[in-house]
Amino acid sequence: MTTEMGVISANNTTTPGWGLNIGSGERFVDIYQKFDNIFSKTPKVIVTLSRLDASVGTDVRIAVTARDIDSNSFNLRILTWSDTLIYGVDASWIATDDY
To answer: What is the model's pTM?
Structure first.
C-alpha cells in the first residue's frame, strides 16, 4: 500500500498558462504533479480546495479535479467560468492505491 499527500499552490504570477484572472467564459489551467513514489496500481486521488483568492463583485465559480491519473503522476485541473476572476488557489491532495 502506498499513500502520498501534498498541496499544490498556483496563482496568476507564478503558474505558466494561468488565465483564470482575465476574460470570461470557461477557463482552466492544468498543473502536473509527480508522485514521490511509483504506485503499484493507478491510485485514487482526492483533491480539495484549501485556499482561494478571487475577485469581489461577481459570483465565485471554481472546480478542482484530478485528471490523467497514472501510477507516476496526475494533473490538477483548476476550472472557472462565466465572469469569475481567480487570482490564486491552494489545492490539497491525497493519493492511495489501497482500495
So the answer is: 0.94
